[in-house]
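SEVERITY: medium
COMPONENT: batch folding queue
REPORTER: lab tech (J.R.)

DESCRIPTION
The queue accepted two submissions in a row. Attaching both inputs and their returned structure tokens so the on-call engineer can compare them side by side.

ATTACHMENT 1
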Amino acid sequence: MSDPASSPAGAHPPPHTLTPFLQALKAGDLETLSKLRHALRTPLNQIIGYSEMLMESAEENNARSILPGLKGIHSSGGQLLAVINDALAPWKIETGRIDFPGMRQAMRAPLASILTQAGHCLEKSRVSGHNDLVKDLEKILMAAHNLEKLFQSEAYSGELIVGRPTPAADEGATDPGPLAPAGAPAVTPEDFGLSAQPMPNAKILAVDDDPMNRDMISRRLEKLGYEVTDAGTGREALQKLKDGNYDLVLLDILMPDLDGFQALEFMKADPRLRHVPVIMLTALDDVASTVRCIEAGAEDYVPKPFNPTVLRARITASLEKKRLRDQEQAFLAQLQVERSKSERLLLNVLPRAIAERLKAGQRTIVDSFIDSTVMFADIVGFTRIAAKQSPHRTVQLLNELFSGFDRIAEQRELEKVKTIGDAYMLAAGVPVIRTDHAEACAEAAFEFLEAVRVFNRRHSLDWGIRVGMNSGPVVAGIIGTKKFSYDLWGDTVNIASRMESHGQPGKIQVSEATKKLIEGKYEFTPVGVIEIRNSSPMPTYLLARKEGKK
């Protein structure tokens, strides 16, 4: 987004005539009249603001000879502010009861005082060599001349008390009086909170179409320790917000091309910018503008000319809210990371379906499954193997082999139930029902045998495993509340274990129940009948792939 104006300073020059406002008064154009306060208070904001900064600089630079003059400028600026607030009170604008000649008469003396005292202070500063004060004094003179030019309009003469008086006004409505006190007292360095520590590394974007306003705001905030960037238009501000990260935006309302309200709406519509706090700055000073700012999402609203202590306090409060909000977001992000870690750990212990039920608050989880297949794989002669090498090496090799089994189980979408020493137990059809449970386990068993062969070649070992399978109903659930695990119970489990323990190294032994489920897909070699505790003798079979099938 580019700024269409070649220069922000030239994009919106301050008005030097009251003619448009007089015409607006005659036409009953309240919207234009509401901007009159802004037009008059902009140079006043500069007069008061620069005089405050100069008083501080004069103390620091041993230029106390101009302090009385600076205080006089500040006091006269306060008088002008009181006159404008009274003459252009919102109720007078709404009823059209604005007395321009009376306002001009009341402003003449304090304005003349400002011009005179600023000229004297400027001359003294040049003579004493305080060149750092000269530029700001010249800005005060420029602002005073701009204010003076506003009242040199030829359309200014005559009594202008016109408009649409309300019944209350005709009946002698009471003037509510000035909306602001007659100027703020002179400030000291302590008023700027120079001893207070600002939010570390806080970056503030100051947006105002008037160069002198931007200069004043930037210098005030930089002295408080903030890093300040300025923008002269709403478009320029949005581009800078897009390109950088800011902790706070000070946003003027009345600007050319894209005003403060529109810029605020764009910010709140952007997910990346909507949480950046915005303090609106304006000389409009009316309730409607305040309400509109807050409703649009502004954090706060400060009328011009602003009291530096109030502005500092509101900036500090807004930055503190942002700091807490950022802290909360960081905490939530870290919480999500830890939650993800916990969930991954939980899924390493429990099936996903069971973990979801636990997270939902279910305390007792016990399920019956009519059709399932259970498989055991056990390392042959593991005690002898373990005795030949260090415990560390044994566990390292066992972990490598079983991790390979884990990958096979995951790829086949089988449920690893547990490891018992050197035995590995898995199931199919539990806890997620599937009709091909027996075939899925059979394919995994063949892959287990191949994984052992690859493992042996890699490490020059001769490890072997026995595999046993059985199919039938099981009961599955969680045992205990601490160090719990998901386990299976029932005769189907016991028989599968016997299939493995009575099996042969490098072979897959299955029960009659499993054979019936996958018959025709594999080759079966009868082994004989085995005795099983608490059960009748049972025929068993060695499982093999059909010839030519891999």
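ATTACHMENT 2
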Amino acid sequence: EPVEGGEYEFFRSRNASADELAAFGIDVPDDVSVPVMYSNTTFHTSEGPIEVWEDVYAPWTVKAVPRGATRPADATPG
């Protein structure tokens, strides 16, 4: 349940975009997929969402994220 003035953060994975690969300094052919972990944090009030943030983690920065992890501190650095 949403909490008044609260936030939720969820971890997921997807393929990195070309801009993200460039920002991380990863040089791979166009036909190679590079997975990244990202989190979405939704800030909200009782009236609904007010802002959504997305944080993208470089492949070498996270070794594991336990099931149910809700914040970056729960992740294991690589």
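NOTES FROM REPORTER
The CA atoms of residues 2 and 48 lie 9 Å apart.
No errors were logged for either attachment.
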